[in-house]
Amino acid sequence: KKMSDSQAKQPRQVVIVGGGVMGCMIAYQLALREKDLSITLIERCAVACASSGRAGGFLARDWCDSLPTEQLTRLSYQMHAELAAVLPCSYDYRPVTTVEANRDPRHSPSASSSSSSSSAGWLDGEHVSVDPKADSSTTAQLHPYKFTHALLEATRRLEALRELVHGTLHEVVFSGSASASASAS
Predict the structure, then answer these.
(1) Rounded Cα gap, residues 172 and 103, in angstroms
(2) In this structure, are residues 138 and 62 in contact, taking their beta carbons and an 8 Å threshold?
(3) CB of 51 within 8 A of CB of 20?
(4) pTM above threshold 0.85
(5) What Å distances lie between residue 68 and 23, 59, 102, 104, 133, CA to CA?
(6) Residue among 180, 164, 137 at smallest CA distance from 24
């Protein structure tokens, strides 16, 4: 079926429920891949107000190797490194060296102790053992709240975000095979 000129110029309406990292990432990825989108993001409180704004932000490339999520974890780690170079706002992404520090009253510092290594120089070494877990090529950290907001800002700059609604979705009404409307307050 051929569309009329007025139908062809109308942007597709997309409603995303949830302004956490997943909702903002979906909006950003859709905006990158589809032209002429009009995205409405519905969030009950504020963008990144719950766990998306309070998580630790730790990323590890290979800590899920041999698990069913291995490929996803590696792709996610790579994607975060790529996003750090292209998103319009800093969200404190940085590769980090990861160590495990354990308090052990029986441990006494020695010349061979790894606690004196530069990777954990902030530890005094007394009653603490430090073991390297990963170098900065396989672990990183970001600020989750800033990251979620950077995704939202990037979506705005791609001119795909029509509206950010602070409210609760009440209903979705489908009319026909290809259209729907949402009601939020």
Answers:
(1) 54
(2) yes
(3) yes
(4) no
(5) 24, 17, 30, 35, 22
(6) 164
How do beta strands 169-175 and 179-184 pair?
antiparallel
C-alpha of 71 from chain center? 17
pLDDT in tens, 25-63: 999 999 999 988 999 999 999 999 998 888 889 999 999
- The residues with which 41 forms a beta bridge, in sequence order, are 16, 164
Strands 58-60 and 139-141: antiparallel
Distance (Å, whole) CA 97 – CA 140: 8
CA distance 93 to 185: 35
CA distance 171 to 152: 24
